[in-house]
Amino acid sequence: MEYVLSLLGPLSQGALVTLKLFVVTLVLAVPLGLALALMRVSRFRALARLVNGYIWLMRGTPLMLQMLFIYFALPFVPVIGVRFDDFPAAVVAFSLNYAAYFAEIFRAGIQSIDRGQYEGAKVLSYGQTMRRIVLPQIWPRILPPMSNETITLVKDTSLIYVLALNDLLRAARGIVQRDFTTTPFIVAACFYLVMTLVLTWGFQYLEKRYAKYDA
């Protein structure tokens, strides 16, 4: 037990890196995903096709590959040539990737609204129709898939070990290699379980709250 308690300090520091990436990604990816979804369902076909191609690309290639490309290959791309440090590279990759997934969730929610409501709102502009009529109705419908994707995000943060960031998984792995015991992995798993449990409770609360409004 004393050994387990000694692990809490270094693993907590790794968990802070994990949580930081999770929060920053969520703050950036959700509004970007919503913007992409609105462009995806817009009447401008060229824009919709462009966004559809972006979503196809980001969902069709591994997140780790995207992260490695942004960190290692992007600096050598002609004209662009942008170089990111390890954490910003992870944030960019995660935000762009998860924005594509969130965009599809938002798109499904928007298109689930009855067409009659769009016709009844012809006196309003497109932006007003979305802001006042459509978007307020989609939140209860998209909460379950948003919950799944958000919990997946917590677990996917472990991929940043390839950039040598000292996240929760890398911290646990370092201790395992040092002490020749798998106990740090078990403790790290408990950290992940606690984080996902808190998110699960939060989304369940939101689902029940919106269910009361719909009743």
From TrEMBL:
Location of the protein in the cell: Cell inner membrane; Cell membrane
PROSITE patterns recorded: ABC_TM1
Keyword Membrane listed: yes
Domain ABC transmembrane type-1 residues, every copy: 15-203
Keywords: Amino-acid transport, Cell membrane, Membrane, Transmembrane, Transmembrane helix, Transport
GO CC annotation, single: ATP-binding cassette (ABC) transporter complex
Transmembrane segments: 20-42, 87-106, 185-206
GO biological process, one term: amino acid transport
Membrane topology recorded in Swiss-Prot or TrEMBL: Multi-pass membrane protein
Family label: Belongs to the binding-protein-dependent transport system permease family. HisMQ subfamily.
Protein name stated in the entry: Glutamate/aspartate import permease protein GltK
